[in-house]
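Q: Predict the bound structure with adenosine-5'-triphosphate.
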Amino acid sequence: MSLLEIRNLDVRHGLLQAVRDLSLSVEKGETIALVGANGAGKTTLLRTIAGAHMPAGGSVVFNGIDITTIPAYRRVGLGVALVPEGRRLFGQMSVEENLVLARSAGRRGDWTVERVLEAFPNLKPRRHAKAGNLSGGEQQATAIGRALMTNPEVLILDEVSLGLSPLAVDRVYASLQSLIGGGTTIILVEQDLRRAMRVADRIVCMLEGRIVLEGKRGEISREQVSEAYFGLGTDKGRVHA
Ligand SMILES: Nc1ncnc2c1ncn2[C@@H]1O[C@H](COP(=O)(O)OP(=O)(O)OP(=O)(O)O)[C@@H](O)[C@H]1O
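A: Predicted complex:
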Protein backbone atom coordinates (compact mmCIF):
# COMPACT_ATOMS: atom_id res chain seq x y z
CA MET A 1 0.00 0.00 0.00
CA SER A 2 1.32 3.46 -0.93
CA LEU A 3 1.58 6.08 1.81
CA LEU A 4 -0.52 8.51 -0.21
CA GLU A 5 -3.03 7.60 -2.93
CA ILE A 6 -4.63 10.42 -4.89
CA ARG A 7 -7.40 9.11 -7.10
CA ASN A 8 -9.20 10.92 -9.92
CA LEU A 9 -8.94 14.26 -8.16
CA ASP A 10 -10.90 17.23 -9.49
CA VAL A 11 -10.37 20.59 -7.83
CA ARG A 12 -12.09 23.83 -8.73
CA HIS A 13 -11.74 27.50 -7.91
CA GLY A 14 -15.27 28.60 -8.72
CA LEU A 15 -15.77 27.85 -12.41
CA LEU A 16 -12.08 27.26 -13.03
CA GLN A 17 -10.97 23.65 -12.84
CA ALA A 18 -7.39 23.77 -11.51
CA VAL A 19 -6.82 19.99 -11.09
CA ARG A 20 -8.38 17.51 -13.55
CA ASP A 21 -8.92 13.82 -12.93
CA LEU A 22 -5.47 13.55 -11.37
CA SER A 23 -4.17 10.30 -9.87
CA LEU A 24 -0.84 9.89 -8.12
CA SER A 25 0.65 7.40 -5.64
CA VAL A 26 3.45 8.38 -3.28
CA GLU A 27 5.52 5.69 -1.60
CA LYS A 28 6.87 5.92 1.93
CA GLY A 29 10.30 7.57 2.01
CA GLU A 30 10.03 8.91 -1.52
CA THR A 31 10.91 12.49 -2.52
CA ILE A 32 8.72 13.80 -5.32
CA ALA A 33 9.38 17.06 -7.14
CA LEU A 34 6.30 18.58 -8.69
CA VAL A 35 7.15 20.87 -11.59
CA GLY A 36 5.12 22.78 -14.15
CA ALA A 37 4.48 26.25 -15.50
CA ASN A 38 2.63 28.98 -13.60
CA GLY A 39 -1.01 28.06 -13.21
CA ALA A 40 -0.45 24.34 -13.86
CA GLY A 41 -2.23 23.49 -10.59
CA LYS A 42 0.71 22.54 -8.36
CA THR A 43 -0.23 24.73 -5.39
CA THR A 44 -3.87 23.69 -5.67
CA LEU A 45 -2.86 20.01 -5.58
CA LEU A 46 -0.63 20.48 -2.52
CA ARG A 47 -3.29 22.47 -0.70
CA THR A 48 -5.88 19.81 -1.45
CA ILE A 49 -3.62 17.06 -0.07
CA ALA A 50 -3.16 19.15 3.09
CA GLY A 51 -6.87 19.87 3.42
CA ALA A 52 -6.64 23.62 2.86
CA HIS A 53 -8.89 23.22 -0.18
CA MET A 54 -11.66 20.68 -0.69
CA PRO A 55 -11.89 18.79 -4.00
CA ALA A 56 -14.96 18.67 -6.22
CA GLY A 57 -14.35 14.99 -6.95
CA GLY A 58 -11.99 12.07 -6.38
CA SER A 59 -10.27 11.02 -3.18
CA VAL A 60 -7.14 11.37 -1.08
CA VAL A 61 -6.16 8.29 0.92
CA PHE A 62 -3.35 8.57 3.45
CA ASN A 63 -1.97 5.56 5.28
CA GLY A 64 -5.08 3.67 4.24
CA ILE A 65 -7.43 6.32 5.67
CA ASP A 66 -9.70 8.27 3.33
CA ILE A 67 -8.91 11.85 4.37
CA THR A 68 -10.74 13.55 1.46
CA THR A 69 -13.18 15.41 3.70
CA ILE A 70 -11.10 15.58 6.88
CA PRO A 71 -10.24 19.19 7.87
CA ALA A 72 -6.64 20.42 7.61
CA TYR A 73 -5.93 20.54 11.36
CA ARG A 74 -6.85 16.88 11.73
CA ARG A 75 -4.62 15.92 8.82
CA VAL A 76 -1.70 17.53 10.68
CA GLY A 77 -2.47 15.18 13.54
CA LEU A 78 -2.39 12.25 11.11
CA GLY A 79 1.06 13.24 9.83
CA VAL A 80 0.44 15.56 6.86
CA ALA A 81 2.34 18.87 7.08
CA LEU A 82 2.32 21.68 4.52
CA VAL A 83 4.91 24.45 4.25
CA PRO A 84 2.81 26.93 2.28
CA GLU A 85 3.92 29.39 -0.35
CA GLY A 86 4.65 32.63 1.49
CA ARG A 87 5.52 30.69 4.68
CA ARG A 88 2.75 32.25 6.83
CA LEU A 89 4.72 32.59 10.05
CA PHE A 90 3.53 34.54 13.09
CA GLY A 91 5.68 37.62 12.46
CA GLN A 92 5.41 39.07 15.96
CA MET A 93 6.45 35.81 17.60
CA SER A 94 10.01 34.53 17.90
CA VAL A 95 11.43 31.63 15.91
CA GLU A 96 11.23 29.44 19.00
CA GLU A 97 7.62 30.44 19.72
CA ASN A 98 6.62 29.64 16.14
CA LEU A 99 8.21 26.22 16.50
CA VAL A 100 6.74 25.42 19.92
CA LEU A 101 3.26 26.45 18.83
CA ALA A 102 3.28 23.86 16.03
CA ARG A 103 4.09 20.99 18.35
CA SER A 104 0.67 20.91 19.96
CA ALA A 105 -1.02 20.50 16.56
CA GLY A 106 0.98 17.50 15.49
CA ARG A 107 1.83 13.92 16.30
CA ARG A 108 4.10 12.65 19.00
CA GLY A 109 7.65 12.16 17.79
CA ASP A 110 11.32 13.05 17.95
CA TRP A 111 11.31 16.61 16.66
CA THR A 112 12.21 19.27 19.24
CA VAL A 113 13.26 22.91 18.99
CA GLU A 114 16.87 21.79 19.56
CA ARG A 115 16.73 19.28 16.76
CA VAL A 116 15.28 21.82 14.34
CA LEU A 117 18.08 24.24 15.26
CA GLU A 118 20.61 21.45 14.60
CA ALA A 119 19.02 20.80 11.20
CA PHE A 120 19.01 24.52 10.36
CA PRO A 121 22.17 25.92 12.00
CA ASN A 122 21.60 29.42 10.57
CA LEU A 123 18.53 29.67 12.85
CA LYS A 124 20.50 29.10 16.05
CA PRO A 125 21.54 32.74 16.56
CA ARG A 126 18.04 33.86 15.52
CA ARG A 127 16.18 31.68 18.01
CA HIS A 128 14.72 34.63 19.93
CA ALA A 129 14.34 36.99 16.95
CA LYS A 130 10.86 37.89 15.74
CA ALA A 131 9.97 35.82 12.68
CA GLY A 132 8.91 38.99 10.87
CA ASN A 133 12.46 40.34 11.12
CA LEU A 134 14.16 37.30 9.59
CA SER A 135 15.69 37.05 6.12
CA GLY A 136 13.77 35.08 3.49
CA GLY A 137 16.02 32.06 3.93
CA GLU A 138 15.66 32.13 7.71
CA GLN A 139 11.90 32.41 7.36
CA GLN A 140 11.81 29.43 5.02
CA ALA A 141 13.95 27.43 7.45
CA THR A 142 11.59 28.40 10.30
CA ALA A 143 8.54 27.42 8.25
CA ILE A 144 10.07 24.02 7.46
CA GLY A 145 11.10 23.63 11.09
CA ARG A 146 7.55 24.44 12.18
CA ALA A 147 6.23 21.70 9.91
CA LEU A 148 8.80 19.26 11.27
CA MET A 149 7.69 20.02 14.84
CA THR A 150 4.40 18.26 13.97
CA ASN A 151 6.41 15.07 13.29
CA PRO A 152 4.99 14.62 9.80
CA GLU A 153 4.98 11.42 7.84
CA VAL A 154 4.73 13.44 4.67
CA LEU A 155 6.27 16.90 4.39
CA ILE A 156 4.77 19.03 1.62
CA LEU A 157 6.76 22.06 0.51
CA ASP A 158 5.42 24.69 -1.87
CA GLU A 159 7.90 26.80 -3.86
CA VAL A 160 10.94 26.01 -1.74
CA SER A 161 13.21 28.53 -3.49
CA LEU A 162 10.75 31.38 -4.04
CA GLY A 163 12.26 34.77 -3.22
CA LEU A 164 15.47 33.33 -1.77
CA SER A 165 19.05 34.14 -2.73
CA PRO A 166 21.05 31.28 -4.30
CA LEU A 167 23.01 30.94 -1.07
CA ALA A 168 19.84 30.73 1.03
CA VAL A 169 18.41 28.11 -1.34
CA ASP A 170 21.62 26.07 -1.00
CA ARG A 171 21.32 26.23 2.78
CA VAL A 172 17.69 25.16 2.84
CA TYR A 173 18.41 22.24 0.51
CA ALA A 174 21.47 21.21 2.47
CA SER A 175 19.22 20.85 5.52
CA LEU A 176 16.47 19.15 3.54
CA GLN A 177 19.03 16.67 2.23
CA SER A 178 19.44 15.16 5.69
CA LEU A 179 15.66 14.69 5.91
CA ILE A 180 15.55 13.21 2.44
CA GLY A 181 18.31 10.79 3.40
CA GLY A 182 16.51 10.02 6.64
CA GLY A 183 13.45 8.43 5.08
CA THR A 184 10.97 11.31 5.43
CA THR A 185 8.45 11.36 2.58
CA ILE A 186 8.61 14.70 0.79
CA ILE A 187 6.53 16.32 -1.94
CA LEU A 188 7.98 19.61 -3.10
CA VAL A 189 7.30 22.21 -5.74
CA GLU A 190 10.51 23.56 -7.21
CA GLN A 191 10.74 25.96 -10.16
CA ASP A 192 14.43 25.26 -10.68
CA LEU A 193 14.33 22.13 -12.86
CA ARG A 194 17.98 21.29 -12.42
CA ARG A 195 17.66 21.34 -8.65
CA ALA A 196 14.40 19.42 -8.73
CA MET A 197 16.02 16.70 -10.79
CA ARG A 198 19.00 16.52 -8.45
CA VAL A 199 17.04 16.23 -5.23
CA ALA A 200 13.99 14.10 -6.12
CA ASP A 201 13.55 10.35 -6.57
CA ARG A 202 10.72 11.06 -8.98
CA ILE A 203 9.74 14.05 -11.10
CA VAL A 204 6.07 14.74 -11.75
CA CYS A 205 5.26 17.38 -14.35
CA MET A 206 1.86 19.08 -14.41
CA LEU A 207 0.24 21.02 -17.22
CA GLU A 208 -3.24 22.55 -17.09
CA GLY A 209 -4.30 20.54 -14.07
CA ARG A 210 -3.05 17.17 -15.28
CA ILE A 211 0.09 15.10 -14.90
CA VAL A 212 1.65 14.97 -18.34
CA LEU A 213 4.95 13.31 -17.48
CA GLU A 214 6.40 11.40 -14.58
CA GLY A 215 9.57 9.44 -14.19
CA LYS A 216 12.31 8.40 -11.80
CA ARG A 217 15.49 10.40 -11.56
CA GLY A 218 17.96 8.95 -14.01
CA GLU A 219 15.20 7.57 -16.20
CA ILE A 220 13.96 10.96 -17.34
CA SER A 221 15.90 13.70 -19.15
CA ARG A 222 15.78 17.44 -18.67
CA GLU A 223 14.71 17.77 -22.30
CA GLN A 224 11.72 15.49 -21.68
CA VAL A 225 10.70 17.51 -18.62
CA SER A 226 11.17 20.83 -20.44
CA GLU A 227 9.00 19.64 -23.33
CA ALA A 228 6.26 18.45 -20.98
CA TYR A 229 6.55 21.70 -19.01
CA PHE A 230 5.69 23.72 -22.11
CA GLY A 231 3.13 21.24 -23.42
CA LEU A 232 5.24 20.02 -26.32
CA GLY A 233 4.85 16.40 -27.36
CA THR A 234 2.32 15.52 -24.66
CA ASP A 235 -0.64 14.97 -26.96
CA LYS A 236 -0.29 11.24 -26.25
CA GLY A 237 -1.50 11.83 -22.69
CA ARG A 238 0.39 10.99 -19.53
CA VAL A 239 3.90 9.71 -20.21
CA HIS A 240 5.77 7.41 -17.84
CA ALA A 241 9.46 7.78 -18.49
N1 LIG B 1 -7.96 31.18 -4.90
C1 LIG B 1 -8.13 31.07 -6.21
N2 LIG B 1 -9.22 31.59 -6.83
C2 LIG B 1 -9.39 31.47 -8.16
N3 LIG B 1 -8.53 30.86 -8.98
C3 LIG B 1 -7.41 30.34 -8.45
C4 LIG B 1 -7.14 30.42 -7.03
N4 LIG B 1 -5.96 29.80 -6.79
C5 LIG B 1 -5.52 29.38 -7.99
N5 LIG B 1 -6.37 29.70 -8.97
C6 LIG B 1 -6.23 29.36 -10.40
O1 LIG B 1 -6.08 27.95 -10.49
C7 LIG B 1 -5.10 27.61 -11.47
C8 LIG B 1 -4.01 26.79 -10.81
O2 LIG B 1 -3.31 27.63 -9.89
P1 LIG B 1 -2.17 27.08 -8.93
O3 LIG B 1 -1.74 28.21 -8.04
O4 LIG B 1 -2.60 25.82 -8.31
O5 LIG B 1 -1.01 26.75 -9.99
P2 LIG B 1 0.55 26.60 -9.76
O6 LIG B 1 0.98 25.53 -10.69
O7 LIG B 1 0.85 26.42 -8.33
O8 LIG B 1 1.08 28.00 -10.26
P3 LIG B 1 2.24 28.93 -9.65
O9 LIG B 1 3.52 28.27 -10.03
O10 LIG B 1 2.02 30.24 -10.41
O11 LIG B 1 2.01 29.04 -8.18
C9 LIG B 1 -4.61 28.92 -12.06
O12 LIG B 1 -5.33 29.14 -13.26
C10 LIG B 1 -4.96 29.94 -11.02
O13 LIG B 1 -5.19 31.19 -11.60
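A: The helical segments are 42-50, 72-78, 95-103, 113-119, 136-148, 166-181, 193-199, 222-229.
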